[in-house]
Amino acid sequence: MKGVGIEVRALTKRWEETTAVDAVSFSASAGQFTVLLGPSGCGKSTTLRLIAGLEEASSGQILIDGDDVTRQPPNKRKISMVFQSYALFPHLSVAENILFGLKVRRVPAREQSDRLEKTAALLGLSDLLKRRPSQLSGGQQQRVALGRAIIAEKPICLMDEPLSNLDAKLRHEMRIELRALQQKLGLTMVYVTHDQAEAISMADKIIVLNGGRVEQAATPRALYETPASLFAARFIGTPPMNLLRLARQDGGWMIAGDAAPFAKQFEGPLPDELYFGVRPEDLSLAGEGGVPAVVEAVEYLGADNMIDCRIGTERLTARLPHHFKITPGETIRLTWAPGAAHLFNALTEERLEEASRLLARSAGPPRDETRELSAPPASAAQGPR
Amino acid sequence: MHRRMEWIYAWLLLTPALILLFAFTHYPAVTTFWASFFSTPRGRREAEFVGLENYVTLLEDETFWQVLVNNAWYAGITIPVSIALALIMALWVDGKLRGRSFIRMAYFAPTVLPLIAVANIWMFFYTPGFGLIDQVRGLFGLGEVNWLGDPDLALGSVIVVAIWKEAGFFMIFYLAALQSIPPSLREAADIEGASRWTYFRRIVFPLLMPTTLFVSINAVINSFRLVDHIFVMTNGGPDNASSLLLFYIYETAFQYWETAYASTLTVVLLLLLSLLAIGQFFFFDRKVHYR
Ligand SMILES: Nc1ncnc2c1ncn2[C@@H]1O[C@H](COP(=O)(O)OP(=O)(O)OP(=O)(O)O)[C@@H](O)[C@H]1O
Ligand SMILES: [Mg+2]
């Protein structure tokens, strides 16, 4: 049951007045783990259910293994599915639940028991086969749902937030197990979650959805390193990327409400406002230079401290090693590595790739001279609170 | 000490209910049982102990046997037909009309109406010549039928009314049970390629078992209890053709004033009902999955 690829083209699903899925296109390659990620109500489940054939598309196409299956019933789509609520049949034993599909398809009894044995062993369910779903823990139920999906030996497995009912520890274990299982069986997995940490740790490819549209489709690394939009930047990372408004000022740019020039002019047509993004973990203390920021709060997290600070009217968080003794009210000077800076168009909310690269190279953490020209001594300007 | 107080409280709380239960249920039941071994008191003559004489009369009473057979038919037809109809209607309404309370209300109407009112409506259907049924038959050139006056048809006509009344009531229970089945079960079955019938047989029907048990116990009890419409429609006639056990008990007790014999008949009715209820629990016990 080697995985097969899925391609979704301009898929749209409309209910009377809501458009749940709006011209979504992406592909999930054979044998890869693809995650649909987005906030609640963004259309993840609907997209998955469209792929499964549980909802009918308003328009667009779904191709599985190259065949157009848009109008095919679920059982013609080479898919199996694990539901968020598991959808186990409460009156059937674990064994009967897992075998349900094989019985429906009249697979010979010998083969049924062989496959059951194999699947149960794989999932560690061998001792639980006689139990009813209500006699199982959440994690065990989850495994039964998984067993029902993989015994079908379909090349594609669809999962809708299968771990959301589990506690944190079990969720972590199941993440690793699921990923291992998917790789071992070579399944094409399409996995829905709203948890970005889950997505990043499991996916080969993440499709970020927002309001029924695709924001970005990329590998976890690309998503983290080069978010394509403000939304993607805000959604990935804990805590998420700091986004500071930049305003145009005398041929350069400055952080909103701040007195000091921040960066020189970038080339190309740009709006009057930009967002400058930098991740908390990419910020560090500058020995010399850097951007002065007033510390507002310090959150102690053990190895690191989360420092909430303010530059001008913009707030940002820095993640700094705990050995820096920082107290609220103090002014610190922040800097970041070239390449850690991101610029976004404030109007279109899109990433400005060229400008980001320029910023990384030239402006970077602004050089001392530019800053010194107009900045009053930072500590005097903003007294302790 | 503390436990004692709890006990006293418990008994105090239970007492009103217990008094009512004993006064109006258990005590009459026991006196009925007791009375069945005595003769009927008449005028100045006191009731005498007659042993099993009333029971011997019962065995030799042809009307009793006819009424019992009638009741067997009545139960044997109303119970399965009304349950099956209720289930079919519930499946239909659940699938097509999710959330349309008006239609559900329409189905429920026969239940809201008192049986006497239902019987009056049906009297209009059954009236020979003028009734709805005969008018429809007239369109096809068929003759008049005296639905309630013909000894061969009277029981059947009464059964139809009972089914009409019961099916809507039972449907509500099935509908509630169907709506509590998560739609994801249907979807999981769809993904496996299960047909509608397979899904019904393997998933829905077993999940409805507790409801079926509940409904069928009600149906059994009702098949002995629901006789109101007989008063309005046939009065047991013609020639006891549509008389049922409870109706016969009423006649014996309050028209012929044979109270002792009526007690004997009542004991038989209670016995029958308890046997049926116990039998049902044993029969269903292994097949019912409670969630
Ligand atoms: N049957 C339906 N009828 C009308 N609107 C619907 C229906 N199902 C979903 N929607 C709407 O479509 C949008 C997307 O829903 P969907 O279930 O796909 O969200 P989701 O991304 O899975 O969210 P969550 O993370 O909360 O599960 C929502 O606005 C929802 O209200
Ligand atoms: Mg969802």
Structure keywords:
heterodimer; A: 385 residues; alpha+beta; Rossmann fold; OB fold (Dihydrolipoamide Acetyltransferase, E2P); six-stranded mixed sheet; five-stranded antiparallel sheet; 31% strand; B: 291 residues; mainly alpha; MetI-like fold; 13 helices; flat; binds adenosine-5'-triphosphate; binds magnesium ion
Provide the residue-averaged pLDDT of chain A: 86
Could you give the count of β-strands of chain A?
Answer: 20
Number of helices of chain B: 13
- CATH superfamily heading of the largest domain in chain A: P-loop containing nucleotide triphosphate hydrolases
Distance between the termini of chain A: 64 Å
Q: How many discrete domains of chain A? A: 2
Into which percent range does the helicity of residues of chain B fall? over 70%
- Rounded to the nearest angstrom, the distance between the terminal CA atoms of chain B is 39 Å
Tell me the name of the CATH class of chain B: Mainly Alpha
CATH topology grouping of the largest domain in chain A:
Rossmann fold
Side by side, the strands of the main sheet of chain A go 6-7-8-3-9-10
Catalogue the unreliable spans of chain A.
362-385
Give the secondary structure arrangement, pairings included:
The complex is a heterodimer of chains A (385) and B (291).
Chain A: E1 6-14, E2 19-28, E3 33-37, H1 44-52, E4 59-64, E5 67-68, E6 79-82, H2 94-104, H3 109-123, H4 138-150, E7 156-160, H5 168-185, E8 188-193, H6 196-202, E9 205-210, E10 213-218, H7 220-225, H8 230-235, E11 242-249, E12 252-255, E13 261-264, E14 273-278, E15 283-285, E16 291-300, E17 304-311, E18 314-321, E19 331-336, E20 342-345, H9 353-363, H10 368-374, H11 378-381
Parallel strand pairs in A: 3-8, 3-9, 6-7, 7-8
Antiparallel strand pairs in A: 1-2, 1-4, 4-5, 9-10, 11-12, 11-14, 12-13, 14-20, 15-19, 16-17, 16-19, 17-18
Chain B: H1 2-35, H2 53-60, H3 62-96, H4 101-112, H5 115-126, H6 132-139, H7 154-179, H8 183-191, H9 196-207, H10 209-225, H11 228-233, H12 245-254, H13 259-285
Helix pairs in contact in B: 1-13, 2-13, 3-7, 3-10, 4-7, 7-10, 10-13, 12-13
The structure holds adenosine-5'-triphosphate and magnesium ion.
